[in-house]
Amino acid sequence: MIRIPKLIRAAMRAAVFLAAISIAPGAHAQAPEPAQIVLPTRLVASQPATLAVLDKLGRLVPKANVTLSDGTPVETDATGRAFFNAPTTSGVLIARVAGHHEIAAVSAILPFSKSDKTVIDWAPTQVSIHDRFDIRGEGFRGDAAGNTVQLGHQPVFVLAASPISLVLLLDPSASPGTAQLSVTANGSEASAILAALAIEFDAGGANLAPGAKAFLIVRVRGTDQPKDMVVENLAPAVLRFAHGDSEHVRTKGGVDNSAQVSVRAMHPGDFSFSVRLSSADPNSIDTEAAHAYLLAAQKIAPTPWIKRLDPLLTRLEEKKPDTRRIVQEISHLQSSPTPEQVAFLMSAAKVSLQPK
Fold first, then answer.
1. The model scores a pTM over 0.90
2. In this predicted model, what pLDDT tens digit does every residue of 9-37 receive, in sequence order?
3. CATH number, domain at 233?
4. Is residue 332, in this structure, part of any structural domain at all?
5. Which of 39, 208, 243, 351 has its CA 20 to 30 A from that of 133?
6. Smallest Cα–Cα separation from 118: which of 186, 205, 41, 207?
């Protein structure tokens, strides 16, 4: 760890590690505060689904009250998850923590489809062990507990679920490496190959006084192949990167699969980092969900915004839409004052169009 003398010892934490799942403390500890809602990325009209509520440390929050955009109230159970039925018509569903309008999540509702066979249509090829991730397919159970998911022989926790989408989190103690991810639901099984990677920080025991420079080492275990990552500085007032608040780095591969980030101590205090693997799988782009979000935005938008969103919807309906251009156009529209709910849905569309 880096230590800045006479000050609090710096906590070398990655945001990805804060997502490790644990049940939040019970009645004898301070009650956890909801910080985020996790929905499956896709819902099926009229079909069962499961959402989860997490606190700022990524722990599941029991007894959290959530209100769905169709007016349905739900409460998370002892596992921090809540079961509900999606609305009967396609479109979007927005979930908000009761009393906290700003804590919200959205999911696309697709037309009803029934599949008796479990199929994985898309899954990431690599994930950080401490990051949640989603897979898409058919034949899953909307009741999260009805899906049995394993990586190799280790159980995988199902945070949120619908018949066509699961949000998963690996066991924090999972061994880094490549293994088979299997999903069993409704009596059938589907599988995909997944590389589970451990991302670690190493400051080499350096001691930093304000103004001093050093190198932060970001190391990947679970593969000897070079990996591209984005490292984000969550405390720029305490520690500075050489090129702004984020650095794009590529590990060198091999046994010591690591990369260096140049840092400079600025002021006393704790600091932390967020690391995101840079993947660019075009098959992860969800144009159907993006179209649903923009269509929902258009329905509630003031008249000028209706016309601005028309070209985006038209492009998404093309056989091979230019998703990069559409993302750029959404960003351009968001650079001007945008109604809050419209901006929320536009951001959801943009996320759906970016490769994961």
1. no
2. 223 333 333 323 344 444 445 668 899 99
3. 2.60.40
4. yes
5. 243
6. 186
